[in-house]
Amino acid sequence: MKLQGKAIDGFLARPDRRIRAVLVYGPDAGLVRERAGTLARTVVPDLADPFRVAELPARAVAAEGARLLDEVTALSLVGGRRLIRVRDGDETITPACAALFAAAPPGDSLVVVEAGDLGARSRLRVLFETAALGAALPCYVEDESALRRVITDLSSDHGLVPDADALAFLAANLIGDRLVVKGELEKLALYMGSERRVGLEQVQAVIGDGASLLSLDDPVWAAAGGDFAALDKALARLYGESVAPVAILRAAQRHFQRLHWVQAELAAGTSVEGALSALKPPLFFKLRNTFLAQLRQWPLPALRQALERLTDAEIECKQTNMPDETLCARTLLQLAALARSRR
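Above: the chain sequence. Below: its structure as tokens.
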């Protein structure tokens, strides 16, 4: 079964009891963990229950093909459904999962497999999408509009009401990992104390100085300024933190959209001060001179070209089997080369 869109929320709330194994995968590692945990608790409320929960590393499943089936057919000593969690799933566990589906064992235990980003041709992903007893649940990096809804809901859970500018800043700077969003909003709630209304000033004081928590904007500003060394260093750091390349590409799209909007306003006769003051969220004052320098490097036709390349790169990340990190790095290096040529 291939789950998409609104069907995901319905399945998470009430999983089909005929499904015996679910693959939760995608570039948003935080969302993968959150959704896998939600599914797991529909079977066993206490995930630390040693009698009803078995945790298997992927390497053990791959090395001992029968072990997964053995765990699925085992009975709980205290009664109730059993949960088998497989961490760090990858292509190596495909044979064991295929054997499980072929055996169609009796019982009502559930296997939840957590995996990273899997391409459309991934054998593991295709197996779960096509198996009658399996389901594949994707966890892609949310865009800003979807993230705004998530942030609004989570803020409400903490009793917070962010204003429009604060919400825009949060959505623009916390994109990439659902658990990061949760952690930062918890920190914001502690900072606010008994106050409910959250403004841009409070958000910037807690979340950072105009750059995202994981410095998503570092490679973007480096690329737009033609700084190859800074770009390489920033990408290496983010990749080392398992930041999704799609999140970096979207941060780049936001930055170049802001440059494009200001250039269009200037072309229409708006003053520099007027155009910059109208940016939402506001431009952080420490980045003002750098932003102005990049405006001189990027005329409107070049900005349109840059936005087209970034959009194409995101599409390639989702539709081809090329490594996402390679596609992201290649695109930003191309933009850096264009910027360097206009210095």
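Confidence is low (pLDDT under 50) at residues 209-214.
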